[in-house]
Each structure stands twice: as C-alpha cells, then as structure tokens.
Amino acid sequence: MSEAKDNIQHNTQPIIPGQFADIAPYTDLEFRSKMSELVNEDGFEHAVRYVMPDVDYPEFIKQLLELKSQDQFQRQVMGDFLELLAKTTTDGISIDGLDKCKAGESYTFITTHRDIGLDASFLNLCFIRNNMPLTQVAIGNNLLIYEWISDLVKLNRSFIVKRDVQRLQALDAARQLSAYIHYTINTLKESVWIAQREGRAKDSNDVTQESLVKMLSLDGGGSIKENILAVNLMPVSISYEFDPNDYLKAREFLLKRRDPDFKKSKRDDLFSMETGLLRHKGRIHFRIGNCINDELRKYEGGEDRAHVVHETCRLIDRTIHCGYNIFPCNYIAYDEVSGSARFSDRYTAADVERFDEYINKQLDKVDVDNVTSEEREYMRHMMLSMYANPLRNQLAAMEAGDMPL
Question: Are 250 and 204 in contact (CB under 8 A)?
C-alpha cells in the first residue's frame, strides 16, 4: 500500500461508537500509540522470539513502529509471518470461490472451526494473496489471558466475544456483539469472520450453533429473517489434511471419559494455539460458498424465530458439508471406522501405512498416566472419527439431494 493511500484511510476512518469501545479493534487513530505500548511488553518479546527464533528483534520493533495503520500491519507484517507459517508448517494453502465475493460487498464469513488461531488468519492470507479486502475477526476473551494479547489481537483487527459473563449479563453481551457485527457490515462496510460454533469441533462434526444465529438476529431493526439477511452470511469450508491438535483432542475425550466434569485450563488453550500454529498441517483448502441470502429469502416457513434460525443453520451446514476438500486420510479413516473398503480406490497401501504410522505417533504424544490398551484404542477410534466425519457429513448432504450453494 502506498503512503498516500494509507494516509487517506487513516484520516477518513470512522470513529467507533462508545457502545463498542470495549470489544472493537483499535482504530488507526489509536494504532501507533497502542503499538508503542505493545512492543515494550516482555510477554510480546518472548512470544515473537519463540515463533520466530531467528528474528532480529530490535530491527523487527523498528519496523513495527514505522507502521501507520492496521492494514499495513496485517498485510506487511502478519502477511509475511503467515507466509512463513504456510511454508514451514503446511504443504500448501489453496482457495476457490473467491469469485463469489462481489466487489463493494461486505460479508460475514462463517466457517468450520479447526484451529484456534489460524482458521481466520489463513483465510485472510488468501485474501492478501489475491489483493482483496481483509476481514475483522471474532475472538473469544477466554483466550486473552494477558493484556498484551488483547492489545495484539485488537491491533490485528479482531473484535472480542465475551464468554465469561454471568448469565444475567449474557443477553446484553449478545446484543452488543450483534450490534457491532451489523455496524461493521453495514456502516463500516467491512467483512467479518466468525466460527460456526463456540470452540473447535473436537470430533470434526461441523454443525452450526443455533445460539450463534440467534445472536446475529438480535440487531438490524427488522424481522428475524431481515436481520439475518442484513449480515450477508457466506459459509466457508476449511479442510485441513492433518490436525496437529488431533492427539490433544483425543486426550481431552479420554479425560472427559474418565471424569465427566473435566475442564481444560487456560494453559491447555495456549498449548493448543501453540501446537496448531507451529506443527505440520499438510494441505489446507478453503472453499467459499454462495451467500445464503437468495436461498433464505425463498424460505416460506413464516417468521417464527425457531424455524428461521433452524433453516439458516441448515443452509450454512449444507454449504459447508458439500464444500469439504476430501484427502486420502479422510477416505482411509472412513473405511477403517466403518469396517468397509468403500473408498479403497481413493488411496494406496502406502497411504494407509503412512496414515497408520501418523496416528500411532500422535497417540504416543498423549501425556496421560496409566493409559490402558483399551483407552488407547478408544483414543485411536476418536482420532479416526475426526478424520472420517467430514466425509460422512459430505456423503449425508449429497445423499439427501443437497448440492453446493
């Protein structure tokens, strides 16, 4: 971006209304002062040196302090970092459906949720590569365990989803979030990213939470259907060939099986972020579906809230399930779990050997005491199910007569 263009954006950016001050990203007017504070945080320096061990930190800080806007930060700094991650931890990131994003339109990109940090980041990397507008990103405040992390994500155009509020305040938080998303789409004319559910789908069975759609319908000033239409929901299927957190998810399944009241710690979330960020993921593919508005407008089930929400979720799920990119490991896992050879023509004996070796190596990483052979087999079954479920859902959608939107 040229300096002149950056200055135009910097000077004309709307001031965020006070009602959103605690959840909205920092504006360009705040950018330089907040960046100056961030680079003096010891935790930030530690994190940078950890993920980029060869960094010339003083030179890196100098570069950060010369930036004038979020867009520069996202494209020049975060873009370069994400390209490094793509090169070192993936076998390539691809995308199709970009032609469905109309110039001048803003969307709510609603996606599968595999990785805590990279789902939205790699989607924005695809937009950077194609010189397209970037999205604001929804992030739960449960992940913001240090103030500097909160500053970093708000500098990186993320807005906050409050997940630690008491029950009586939950509706107010949902209304504030809904109003902010509507404001971003329709006033700021910026797109947003949000996962189809709170928390990752541990078993890769991707189903949209109705509470999320209800939240989106709280603002807009119209009927429930009109309010949902106003945020231009655009489903996106994210397909990771390998999930570096698969063994951590299997571990969590085991611990919950042993103790139904087991809950992860904040350290567990941080370790999941770290693992997802730095470990190998194989190939990654994004498939953008059509905005669901045309299909939702055809819905003739009346304005009953529950029915409209259910239909919206169905349209999102249908698009996502039909849009998966299926890898050999998904076919292998499906056949192993189902005890069939239905897709044996989609993989080789060498593929099976490599995948079985991968699963066993991942299971060896599980740090739980006194794991029995039966418990290890349980975790193996859960891991195989993680890889089989995208194909299961795609088959179910196709067999029901659904086609990609």
Answer: no
- Give the chain's domain count: 2
List the one residue out of 376, 346, 352, 351 whose CA is nearest residue 364.
376
Same domain, 59 and 203: yes
Q: Is 193 helix (H, G, I), strand (E, B) or coil?
A: strand
Written as tens digits, the pLDDT of the chain (405 aa) is 333 334 334 445 567 889 999 999 999 999 999 999 999 999 999 999 999 999 999 999 999 999 999 999 999 999 999 999 999 999 999 999 999 999 999 999 999 998 888 999 999 999 999 999 999 999 999 888 889 999 999 999 999 999 878 888 999 999 999 999 999 999 999 999 999 988 777 788 999 999 999 999 999 999 999 999 999 999 999 999 999 999 999 999 999 999 999 988 878 888 888 999 999 999 999 999 999 999 999 998 777 899 999 999 999 999 999 999 999 999 999 999 999 999 999 999 999 999 999 999 999 999 999 999 999 999 999 999 999 999 999 999 988 765 544
Both 187 and 156 in one domain: the answer is yes
Inside any domain, residue 10: no
Nearest to 311 by CA among 330, 332, 296: 296
Residues 296, 358: one domain?
A: no
CA distance 317 to 112: 9
Gap between the Cα atoms of 138 and 118, Å rounded? 12
Distance CA 111, CA 316 (A): 9
Please report the DSSP string for 83-135 in residue order.
HHHHHHH-S-EEEE-GGGS-TT---EEEE----TTHHHHHHHHHHHHTT-PPE
Kindly report the number of other CB atoms within 10 A of residue 288's CB atom. 23
List, in order, residues 6 or more apart from 166 with CB less than 8 Å away: none
Domain hosting 340: range is 248-264+272-279+327-405
